[in-house]
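WARN retry 2 of 3 for item q-0093 after timeout on previous attempt; input resubmitted unchanged.
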Amino acid sequence: MSSALPSLRALLIDEIKDLHSAETQLTKALPKMIKAATHPELKTSLAEHLVETRGHVSRLVEALHLLDLPPKGKTCHAMKGLVEEAAEAISITAPSAVRDAALIGAAQRVEHYEMAGYGTARAFAVALEENSIASLLTATLDEEGAANEKLTLISIDVNAAALMADNDAMPPPKTRKSIRTARR
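OK item q-0093 returned
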């Protein structure tokens, strides 16, 4: 079991290292999600976010450098679980709008986790008057929010397409005549 964190500074360091691990894991997961997506706008959005995520890793390395620390030493188990759920969403769906809807859900869970982490770390940095670090975290927090909003907009078309596919796969509704015939 790990030892207790003794200070707000230690909490900040722990949060930044957790985010670094999370973002590093995401740089490995996003290419698989891009490959699995079928909706062109979703593929593009995920590809753009992969580029941004690499920048997030760089900012976190810079923040740790400002704290005179290496970017190693922590595994983000929450992101590991979120990445596993995204992989499961891919494995249990065929390439389709339904898979795209599942991928958007998985990506938005990741975004919300990251936004919570960046918001927390930024609050710690502000309290500690680590303004340079707070600025780095704010820039990434803003990008995560924008990525989430973009996914929400894409989900409107994707969910409609998934619903249409569901309706096409369903048998036609029974009419009164077919119900009467079935009873005889």
